[in-house]
Amino acid sequence: MSVNTYLSDEERLIFESATIGIAGAGGLGSNCAMHLVRAGLKRLVIADFDEVSESNLNRQFFFRDQIGRKKVDALAENLRRIEPDLDLALHDIRLTSENAGPAFEECQVIVEALDSAEAKSMLLGALLPMDKPIISASGLAGWGRSCEIGQRRIGRNLILIGDTTSDIRSGLAPVSPRVGIAAAMEANAVVALLLGLEI
Amino acid sequence: MTITYQGDNEDTEATTVWNFLNKKGVDVRSAIIELDGEIIADMSIPLKNGSVLNVFRIVSGG
User: Are A7 and A31 in contact (CB under 8 A)?
Assistant: First the structure.
Protein backbone atom coordinates (compact mmCIF):
# COMPACT_ATOMS: atom_id res chain seq x y z
CA MET A 1 0.00 0.00 0.00
CA SER A 2 1.41 3.35 -1.01
CA VAL A 3 0.87 6.59 0.86
CA ASN A 4 -0.18 7.96 -2.53
CA THR A 5 -3.46 6.20 -3.28
CA TYR A 6 -3.76 8.01 -6.61
CA LEU A 7 -0.95 6.04 -8.26
CA SER A 8 -1.63 3.56 -11.01
CA ASP A 9 -0.08 0.10 -10.57
CA GLU A 10 2.53 1.00 -13.17
CA GLU A 11 3.42 4.27 -11.48
CA ARG A 12 3.63 2.57 -8.10
CA LEU A 13 6.03 -0.04 -9.44
CA ILE A 14 8.23 2.61 -11.03
CA PHE A 15 8.32 4.70 -7.86
CA GLU A 16 8.89 1.81 -5.50
CA SER A 17 11.77 0.40 -7.54
CA ALA A 18 13.57 3.73 -7.92
CA THR A 19 16.40 4.88 -5.67
CA ILE A 20 16.83 8.63 -5.45
CA GLY A 21 19.84 10.41 -3.97
CA ILE A 22 19.42 13.61 -1.99
CA ALA A 23 22.62 15.55 -1.35
CA GLY A 24 21.83 17.73 1.63
CA ALA A 25 18.98 17.62 4.14
CA GLY A 26 18.36 21.32 4.57
CA GLY A 27 15.72 23.56 3.05
CA LEU A 28 15.84 21.95 -0.37
CA GLY A 29 16.67 18.39 0.61
CA SER A 30 14.31 17.89 3.55
CA ASN A 31 11.34 19.31 1.67
CA CYS A 32 12.21 17.52 -1.57
CA ALA A 33 12.42 14.23 0.34
CA MET A 34 9.03 14.93 1.93
CA HIS A 35 7.47 15.51 -1.50
CA LEU A 36 9.06 12.37 -2.93
CA VAL A 37 7.77 10.22 -0.06
CA ARG A 38 4.28 11.69 -0.38
CA ALA A 39 4.48 10.97 -4.13
CA GLY A 40 5.08 7.30 -3.34
CA LEU A 41 8.84 6.84 -3.54
CA LYS A 42 10.27 4.54 -0.92
CA ARG A 43 14.02 4.29 -1.48
CA LEU A 44 16.09 7.36 -0.74
CA VAL A 45 19.79 7.88 -0.13
CA ILE A 46 20.23 11.02 1.99
CA ALA A 47 23.56 12.63 2.90
CA ASP A 48 24.14 15.51 5.31
CA PHE A 49 26.65 16.18 8.09
CA ASP A 50 24.72 18.87 9.93
CA GLU A 51 22.48 19.10 12.97
CA VAL A 52 19.08 20.75 13.19
CA SER A 53 19.32 24.32 14.51
CA GLU A 54 16.75 26.93 15.38
CA SER A 55 17.53 28.96 12.25
CA ASN A 56 16.53 25.97 10.12
CA LEU A 57 12.94 25.96 11.31
CA ASN A 58 11.88 28.82 9.01
CA ARG A 59 12.06 26.56 5.97
CA GLN A 60 13.25 23.05 6.70
CA PHE A 61 11.12 19.97 7.39
CA PHE A 62 12.06 19.72 11.05
CA PHE A 63 10.43 20.57 14.36
CA ARG A 64 11.53 22.51 17.43
CA ASP A 65 11.97 19.38 19.54
CA GLN A 66 14.48 18.09 16.96
CA ILE A 67 16.98 20.92 17.46
CA GLY A 68 20.42 19.45 18.07
CA ARG A 69 19.70 16.15 16.37
CA LYS A 70 21.50 14.98 13.26
CA LYS A 71 19.51 16.08 10.24
CA VAL A 72 19.61 12.71 8.54
CA ASP A 73 18.15 11.01 11.63
CA ALA A 74 15.49 13.66 12.27
CA LEU A 75 14.50 13.67 8.61
CA ALA A 76 14.22 9.89 8.52
CA GLU A 77 11.95 10.04 11.55
CA ASN A 78 9.72 12.66 9.94
CA LEU A 79 9.56 10.85 6.61
CA ARG A 80 8.57 7.62 8.38
CA ARG A 81 5.69 9.45 10.02
CA ILE A 82 4.35 9.93 6.48
CA GLU A 83 5.25 6.43 5.25
CA PRO A 84 6.63 3.90 7.75
CA ASP A 85 7.65 1.47 5.01
CA LEU A 86 10.70 3.31 3.66
CA ASP A 87 14.13 2.04 2.63
CA LEU A 88 16.42 4.91 3.66
CA ALA A 89 20.20 4.92 3.39
CA LEU A 90 21.46 7.70 5.64
CA HIS A 91 24.97 9.10 5.31
CA ASP A 92 26.05 11.38 8.15
CA ILE A 93 28.89 12.85 6.10
CA ARG A 94 30.06 16.15 4.68
CA LEU A 95 29.97 15.51 0.96
CA THR A 96 33.25 15.92 -0.88
CA SER A 97 34.41 15.33 -4.42
CA GLU A 98 35.82 12.00 -3.19
CA ASN A 99 32.85 10.57 -1.29
CA ALA A 100 29.90 11.94 -3.31
CA GLY A 101 30.16 9.45 -6.14
CA PRO A 102 30.28 6.34 -3.94
CA ALA A 103 27.50 7.69 -1.69
CA PHE A 104 25.06 7.97 -4.60
CA GLU A 105 26.32 5.18 -6.82
CA GLU A 106 23.11 3.13 -6.58
CA CYS A 107 20.81 6.08 -7.36
CA GLN A 108 18.96 6.57 -10.64
CA VAL A 109 18.52 10.31 -10.08
CA ILE A 110 20.40 12.62 -7.71
CA VAL A 111 19.07 15.83 -6.20
CA GLU A 112 21.62 18.53 -5.36
CA ALA A 113 20.31 20.26 -2.25
CA LEU A 114 23.33 21.96 -0.73
CA ASP A 115 23.71 25.49 0.61
CA SER A 116 26.82 27.20 -0.64
CA ALA A 117 27.75 27.93 -4.23
CA GLU A 118 31.13 26.30 -3.69
CA ALA A 119 29.58 23.09 -2.38
CA LYS A 120 27.07 23.01 -5.22
CA SER A 121 29.81 23.46 -7.82
CA MET A 122 31.94 20.81 -6.13
CA LEU A 123 29.08 18.34 -6.11
CA LEU A 124 28.16 18.92 -9.75
CA GLY A 125 31.79 18.48 -10.72
CA ALA A 126 31.88 15.18 -8.87
CA LEU A 127 28.54 13.79 -10.04
CA LEU A 128 28.17 14.92 -13.65
CA PRO A 129 30.81 12.45 -14.89
CA MET A 130 28.63 9.63 -13.48
CA ASP A 131 26.25 10.22 -16.40
CA LYS A 132 23.14 10.17 -14.20
CA PRO A 133 20.35 12.75 -14.17
CA ILE A 134 21.03 15.45 -11.60
CA ILE A 135 18.48 17.98 -10.38
CA SER A 136 20.15 21.09 -8.99
CA ALA A 137 18.98 24.45 -7.68
CA SER A 138 20.47 27.92 -7.91
CA GLY A 139 18.73 31.18 -7.02
CA LEU A 140 15.87 30.77 -4.59
CA ALA A 141 16.44 33.25 -1.77
CA GLY A 142 14.16 36.13 -0.84
CA TRP A 143 10.45 36.76 -1.25
CA GLY A 144 8.07 37.05 -4.20
CA ARG A 145 8.89 36.53 -7.89
CA SER A 146 7.66 32.94 -7.80
CA CYS A 147 7.44 32.71 -11.57
CA GLU A 148 11.10 33.66 -11.95
CA ILE A 149 12.05 30.31 -10.41
CA GLY A 150 12.46 28.55 -13.70
CA GLN A 151 13.86 25.24 -14.78
CA ARG A 152 16.05 24.35 -17.71
CA ARG A 153 17.87 21.31 -18.97
CA ILE A 154 21.59 21.87 -19.39
CA GLY A 155 23.54 19.35 -21.38
CA ARG A 156 22.18 15.80 -21.29
CA ASN A 157 21.83 15.19 -17.58
CA LEU A 158 21.46 18.39 -15.59
CA ILE A 159 18.20 20.09 -14.74
CA LEU A 160 18.71 23.44 -13.03
CA ILE A 161 15.93 24.99 -10.98
CA GLY A 162 15.92 28.56 -9.73
CA ASP A 163 16.42 32.09 -11.03
CA THR A 164 20.27 31.76 -10.89
CA THR A 165 20.57 35.22 -9.31
CA SER A 166 18.85 35.39 -5.90
CA ASP A 167 21.82 34.70 -3.68
CA ILE A 168 21.81 34.58 0.11
CA ARG A 169 25.17 36.34 -0.04
CA SER A 170 23.49 39.40 -1.48
CA GLY A 171 21.46 39.78 1.69
CA LEU A 172 18.40 37.83 0.66
CA ALA A 173 17.19 35.38 3.30
CA PRO A 174 16.46 31.74 2.60
CA VAL A 175 12.78 31.51 3.53
CA SER A 176 10.14 28.87 3.27
CA PRO A 177 7.98 29.96 0.32
CA ARG A 178 10.69 30.28 -2.35
CA VAL A 179 12.87 27.49 -0.98
CA GLY A 180 9.76 25.34 -0.80
CA ILE A 181 8.85 26.10 -4.41
CA ALA A 182 12.33 25.09 -5.56
CA ALA A 183 12.28 21.92 -3.45
CA ALA A 184 8.88 20.96 -4.85
CA MET A 185 10.14 21.62 -8.37
CA GLU A 186 13.14 19.40 -7.73
CA ALA A 187 10.83 16.60 -6.56
CA ASN A 188 8.51 17.17 -9.51
CA ALA A 189 11.44 16.91 -11.91
CA VAL A 190 12.48 13.61 -10.29
CA VAL A 191 9.07 12.01 -10.72
CA ALA A 192 8.72 13.38 -14.25
CA LEU A 193 12.05 11.81 -15.17
CA LEU A 194 11.02 8.48 -13.64
CA LEU A 195 7.72 8.48 -15.49
CA GLY A 196 9.20 9.68 -18.78
CA LEU A 197 7.11 12.83 -18.72
CA GLU A 198 7.99 16.31 -19.87
CA ILE A 199 9.94 18.04 -17.12
CA MET B 1 33.50 34.74 -36.05
CA THR B 2 30.01 34.86 -34.64
CA ILE B 3 28.80 32.78 -31.73
CA THR B 4 25.55 32.67 -29.83
CA TYR B 5 26.07 33.70 -26.23
CA GLN B 6 23.20 33.58 -23.77
CA GLY B 7 20.81 33.48 -26.72
CA ASP B 8 22.23 36.47 -28.60
CA ASN B 9 24.55 36.50 -31.59
CA GLU B 10 27.89 38.06 -30.81
CA ASP B 11 30.99 38.73 -32.88
CA THR B 12 34.18 37.75 -31.13
CA GLU B 13 37.88 37.30 -31.72
CA ALA B 14 38.25 35.02 -28.68
CA THR B 15 39.64 31.66 -29.69
CA THR B 16 38.66 29.62 -26.63
CA VAL B 17 35.83 29.47 -24.15
CA TRP B 18 38.22 30.76 -21.49
CA ASN B 19 39.27 33.77 -23.60
CA PHE B 20 35.68 34.68 -24.28
CA LEU B 21 34.37 34.29 -20.74
CA ASN B 22 37.43 35.99 -19.25
CA LYS B 23 36.68 39.08 -21.35
CA LYS B 24 33.10 38.93 -20.11
CA GLY B 25 34.29 38.78 -16.50
CA VAL B 26 32.54 35.48 -15.85
CA ASP B 27 33.73 33.60 -12.77
CA VAL B 28 33.73 30.08 -14.15
CA ARG B 29 34.34 28.59 -10.69
CA SER B 30 30.72 29.24 -9.77
CA ALA B 31 29.05 28.64 -13.08
CA ILE B 32 27.93 25.83 -15.32
CA ILE B 33 29.23 26.26 -18.84
CA GLU B 34 27.32 24.71 -21.71
CA LEU B 35 28.87 24.64 -25.18
CA ASP B 36 26.84 23.33 -28.09
CA GLY B 37 24.49 21.45 -25.79
CA GLU B 38 27.15 19.82 -23.62
CA ILE B 39 28.36 20.81 -20.17
CA ILE B 40 32.09 21.43 -20.31
CA ALA B 41 34.75 21.58 -17.62
CA ASP B 42 37.70 22.30 -19.91
CA MET B 43 37.69 26.02 -20.68
CA SER B 44 40.49 25.67 -23.24
CA ILE B 45 38.08 24.22 -25.79
CA PRO B 46 38.21 26.31 -28.97
CA LEU B 47 35.23 28.35 -30.06
CA LYS B 48 34.02 27.89 -33.62
CA ASN B 49 31.90 30.04 -35.84
CA GLY B 50 28.32 29.22 -34.88
CA SER B 51 29.17 27.89 -31.39
CA VAL B 52 26.35 28.20 -28.88
CA LEU B 53 27.65 29.13 -25.44
CA ASN B 54 25.55 29.46 -22.29
CA VAL B 55 26.57 30.30 -18.74
CA PHE B 56 24.43 29.49 -15.71
CA ARG B 57 25.39 31.02 -12.38
CA ILE B 58 25.50 28.88 -9.27
CA VAL B 59 24.54 30.97 -6.26
CA SER B 60 24.17 30.10 -2.59
CA GLY B 61 20.94 29.09 -0.92
CA GLY B 62 19.18 25.94 -0.01
Answer: no
Q: Classify A166 as helix, strand or coil.
A: coil
Q: How far is residue B31 from each of residues A117, A192, A199, B48, B51, measured CA to CA in Å? A: 9, 25, 22, 21, 18
| 8 Å CB contact between A32 and A111 | yes
**Cβ–Cβ contact B49 with A under 8 A:** no
Q: Would the pLDDT of A1 be above 80?
A: no
Whether A45 contacts A22, CB under 8 Å: yes
Chain B interface includes A137 (CB < 8 A)? yes
Of all helices (H) and strands (E), which one includes residue B10?
strand B8-11
B62 vs A125: CB contact, 8 Å cut-off? no
Total-model pTM:
0.96
ipTM: 0.91
Say yes or no: B6 contacts chain A, CB-CB below 8 A.
Answer: no
Q: Residues of B with CB below 8 A from A120's CB?
A: 58, 60, 62
Does B57 contact A at CB distance below 8 Å?
A: yes
